[in-house]
Amino acid sequence: MAIERTFSIIKPDATARNLTGAVNAMIEQAGLRIVAQKRVRITREQAETFYAVHKARPFFGELVDFMISGPVVVQVLEGEGAIAKYRDVMGATDPAKAAPNTIRKVHARSIGENSVHGSDAADTAKQEIAQFFAGNEIVG
Ligand code: GDP
Q: Which residue is closest in CA terms to ligand 1's atom 25?
């Protein structure tokens, strides 16, 4: 399988509970490498752009408000089949439906406050990484 890069966000519910290290341990245990990482507060405009695909959904306003409610940690993860692998490590969007030992099963609070984001495909991974990182900030 090819080496890929995917984009990850440790969301405000997780940073608020001091879970950055716990989430990173689960990422690294799965064989993914954190090749870029920074803790930032995203603006409303950045959150709206990032989640533009969900603009028409009833939870859009709540999602944007949540994503700007506290610091997040944005990351680039690298590894074999990293995009699908990280989706597996994250677990289902709704923690009640997530598989055991996934980040969302272990740490998420609800379908909205679900601790992590991970890209869902190669094209979105590329776009999302470019929204937050310059090429020279990613060190594999
Ligand atoms: P993901 O790819 O697993 O993150 O899921 P989606 O792309 O479907 O949704 C993006 C994000 O929107 C999720 O991770 C949640 O934070 C949020 N979200 C999805 N569904 C709901 C919902 O029903 N209510 C709320 N408040 N947020 C939701």
A: 112
